[in-house]
Structures are given as structure tokens and as C-alpha cells.
Amino acid sequence: MIADRARFRHAKKLERLAGFRLPEQAFSGTMLETLSSRLDYDALDFAVREQILAFFNDFLRCECKDSPLCGCPEKKFAKKVIELRENGLDHRQIAAFMLDEYGIEMFPADVLSFLEESVHVLEAISDVSRLQGRCDLAKKTDEHIRLIER
Question: Beta-strand (E) ranges in 4-90?
Fold first, then answer.
């Protein structure tokens, strides 16, 4: 999944703030739990603090009992990547947006691979939904495919 490829650019700053070693992966369990704990975000410079808070607000807010280890952050991140593509950004622009908005580094090739995999999954959903007589679902998936492939 694309969330496994996301790395925080400022992981070392977060590590110093937390006082223990943190992985660079933005969606690792340790990183998610650390970001959800009571860190003194005011100790970070303004730009980094804003990126971390944007990450927290967009991906870590859910009502699940096991939050942040419930899987919702990874799903929200994947959804965000697809939404950005459907809104016209290419894989390079998506990687740049994630870096600017959240301080998350990703290789554009990883974004492209994820989008290609997503299209294959959507094609399978479309085929199965047609076989099951669920034409409305097939039309929705076909529209998502069209938006991703353009």
C-alpha cells in the first residue's frame, strides 16, 4: 500500500522531541502512536508544526477504539492520493503536494505504481459488479477509472 512508502521528512526532529528513536515511515505504529501522544508541538518550528498538525487532522482523526492503529490513517492516505489524481494532479505533483502539505516524502514512481494498482482493483470491482447485476456500482467504478487514467 502507498502508506508504507510515505516517510516523514522531519522524522529526526520528531525523534528529538519524543526523546526516543522513531522510524521514518509516517504510518508505522510507533510513529502514529507518538504523534497521537501528548508531544509538545510548540517546540517545533512553525512550518513543521503546521505540517504535522495537517497530517494529524487529515489522517489520524477517527472514532475507532484502536485508533491510531486501526487502519483508518492508511486508508485515508490512500484515498487522498486517489482524490488528488482524480482532481488532475499527476504522480509528480502528488508527491510534491504531500511534501509541501504534510512533510511526507514519496517517490513519484511509487505514487504511479499505486495508481496503476488502484485501476486494476477498480477494473476487477467493475467486472464483478456487472456479473452481479449491480450496474450502478460498475458505472461508479468506471468513472473513477476514467478520472485516474486521464
Answer: 7-8
Flag whether 16 is in a domain: yes
Query: For the whole model, what pTM was predicted?
Result: 0.91
Mean pLDDT by 10 residues, the chain (150 residues): 93 89 92 85 89 93 84 95 97 98 97 97 96 96 95
Range of the domain at 16: 2-106
Distance, in Å, from the CA atom of 81 to the CA atom of 106, rounded to the nearest integer, reads 11
91-102 and 108-131 helices, crossing angle to 10°: 110
Distance, CA of 100 to CA of 136 (rounded, Å): 37
* Contacts of 91 by beta carbon, 8 Å cutoff, 6+ apart: 85, 108, 109, 111, 112, 115
Q: Which of 120, 115, 54, 112 is nearest to 82 (CA)?
A: 115
Burial-class residue 122 by CB neighbours within 10 Å (0-12, 13-18, 19+). Answer: buried
